[in-house]
């Protein structure tokens, strides 16, 4: 590969900012904008500037190498997709408000792909006809579209974002298990190479359907997932994936299911009463604070609530999300999880995580129910929307060994699924088996949040001065700073050329009229792993090398610096 040319800051489109963007809530958002990596185009829609694009490309390269290594073949499918395959699997409707739907000039329905199970299934149906054609694993690195309800965390949750999605097609369960294991290992390699700290956690299948699924979660305060880690055994799970037997908060015995009355119009109060918990304990679907007071907005279904609508409904009162802190010292609050069921109907799930699925019924907001202050399903939100709140608490027993679980926030950076035959059944994907009879294909699907990984890395590695990239993803290997006058600039450019000739990726701050102090601050903000300064002693051929992460500095001759960096 040809050596990369030296990148000159004087020519680079990367304007650094001293102040955090006003709308930024999380560190990665602030730093990636301030360091000139990305710019916001609209809510949840981002432009990648030269430095950001380099980091993104490095992550793509690592993902590609590891996918290729397990025999996956790269393809590129469209993002603009016809409705029909998504009708066949039911996802045109099931996906709810997150799906971007659009019409063409003839009135035909289309969508912008949020994930591509249907389209890959049809591709394989077209291309693979015999058992000899399987197994096959296909992948793409592609822009995905999801109309996220709260795209508030910068690159972490885009409405347009880059995902590596892959799909495996096998003849039998053993084959699927093998493809799944290969991906699991590839993902470990990817995240280790990227320098991300992560845990593999049991997960629920969500909108994808299917059986086994695991998430790769990167511990971070900025994360929107909560996972439980057992300090004693290997158990780790997204709290969404943990369910317990019913255990009222006062510790009393659990009523048998048949003893739980099921009134015609179940309400939160009647359910709470039947479970022997205070009415205010409220087995709620969505908890929000309205002017500081916790209220429930019943929103059953398998969807995210449209917070804008809830906010509009309560206006001018201030609506905020309930956080972990709101539960502290409030044993009367039971944290609830609601299954994907209709409003106020008798259903398979109960609005409490401590009940195994398939055993009870839920409540929902309805017109008579004031706790919800007259929020009406169908008017204020789709009747089948819901948001699940926290389901497991710190110290709850590990389902495997009983030890108290430790809860941490995390960013979901990858997710692997054994789908089984859900999509193959819906779209009739068969191949001819060895005995001449058709065999229904079994599938897996696997995603890495490529753009999200940029932000997750920033969250995990940044310090108070700015970004700190691991070498594999950094936009350059060394950031050369010309700290002084013409002489320093000359030395800096000269050493930059020599480093580049030796294959080192160099960013050089050759800007005229910018003070050394500003250049140092910018170098720290931008986060290239090594900073090489041509300063006071440049005339004697002595430079200073600083490790961005450890802050260690040392003076070196130009020759030694080049030897060290190559
Ligand atoms: P989340 O729970 O964060 O909404 P998800 O479970 O809906 O994510 P998947 O359908 O499992 O996401 O997609 C695979 C991967 O794509 C995720 O593990 C995540 O890394 C990434 N991803 C999903 N949604 C987004 C988004 N809005 N912005 C950036 N990356 C995303
Ligand atoms: Mg999602
Ligand atoms: Mg998820
Ligand atoms: Mg997921």
Automatic annotation (TrEMBL):
<dbReference type="InterPro" id="IPR023717">
    <property type="entry name" value="Pro-tRNA-Synthase_IIa_type1"/>
</dbReference>
<dbReference type="Pfam" id="PF04073">
    <property type="entry name" value="tRNA_edit"/>
</dbReference>
<keyword id="KW-0963">Cytoplasm</keyword>
<dbReference type="Pfam" id="PF00587">
    <property type="entry name" value="tRNA-synt_2b"/>
</dbReference>
<dbReference type="InterPro" id="IPR036621">
    <property type="entry name" value="Anticodon-bd_dom_sf"/>
</dbReference>
<feature type="domain" description="Aminoacyl-transfer RNA synthetases class-II family profile">
    <location>
        <begin position="54"/>
        <end position="470"/>
    </location>
</feature>
<keyword id="KW-0648">Protein biosynthesis</keyword>
<protein>
    <recommendedName>
        <fullName>Proline--tRNA ligase</fullName>
        <ecNumber>6.1.1.15</ecNumber>
    </recommendedName>
</protein>
<dbReference type="InterPro" id="IPR033730">
    <property type="entry name" value="ProRS_core_prok"/>
</dbReference>
<dbReference type="Pfam" id="PF03129">
    <property type="entry name" value="HGTP_anticodon"/>
</dbReference>
<dbReference type="InterPro" id="IPR050062">
    <property type="entry name" value="Pro-tRNA_synthetase"/>
</dbReference>
<dbReference type="InterPro" id="IPR004154">
    <property type="entry name" value="Anticodon-bd"/>
</dbReference>
<dbReference type="InterPro" id="IPR036754">
    <property type="entry name" value="YbaK/aa-tRNA-synt-asso_dom_sf"/>
</dbReference>
<dbReference type="InterPro" id="IPR002316">
    <property type="entry name" value="Pro-tRNA-ligase_IIa"/>
</dbReference>
<dbReference type="InterPro" id="IPR007214">
    <property type="entry name" value="YbaK/aa-tRNA-synth-assoc-dom"/>
</dbReference>
<dbReference type="InterPro" id="IPR004500">
    <property type="entry name" value="Pro-tRNA-synth_IIa_bac-type"/>
</dbReference>
<keyword id="KW-0030">Aminoacyl-tRNA synthetase</keyword>
<comment type="similarity">
    <text>Belongs to the class-II aminoacyl-tRNA synthetase family. ProS type 1 subfamily.</text>
</comment>
<keyword id="KW-0067">ATP-binding</keyword>
<dbReference type="InterPro" id="IPR044140">
    <property type="entry name" value="ProRS_anticodon_short"/>
</dbReference>
<dbReference type="InterPro" id="IPR002314">
    <property type="entry name" value="aa-tRNA-synt_IIb"/>
</dbReference>
<dbReference type="InterPro" id="IPR006195">
    <property type="entry name" value="aa-tRNA-synth_II"/>
</dbReference>
<dbReference type="GO" id="GO:0005829">
    <property type="term" value="C:cytosol"/>
</dbReference>
<comment type="function">
    <text>Catalyzes the attachment of proline to tRNA(Pro) in a two-step reaction: proline is first activated by ATP to form Pro-AMP and then transferred to the acceptor end of tRNA(Pro). As ProRS can inadvertently accommodate and process non-cognate amino acids such as alanine and cysteine, to avoid such errors it has two additional distinct editing activities against alanine. One activity is designated as 'pretransfer' editing and involves the tRNA(Pro)-independent hydrolysis of activated Ala-AMP.</text>
</comment>
<dbReference type="GO" id="GO:0006433">
    <property type="term" value="P:prolyl-tRNA aminoacylation"/>
</dbReference>
<dbReference type="InterPro" id="IPR045864">
    <property type="entry name" value="aa-tRNA-synth_II/BPL/LPL"/>
</dbReference>
<comment type="subunit">
    <text>Homodimer.</text>
</comment>
<keyword id="KW-0547">Nucleotide-binding</keyword>
<keyword id="KW-0436">Ligase</keyword>
<dbReference type="GO" id="GO:0005524">
    <property type="term" value="F:ATP binding"/>
</dbReference>
<dbReference type="GO" id="GO:0002161">
    <property type="term" value="F:aminoacyl-tRNA deacylase activity"/>
</dbReference>
<dbReference type="GO" id="GO:0004827">
    <property type="term" value="F:proline-tRNA ligase activity"/>
</dbReference>
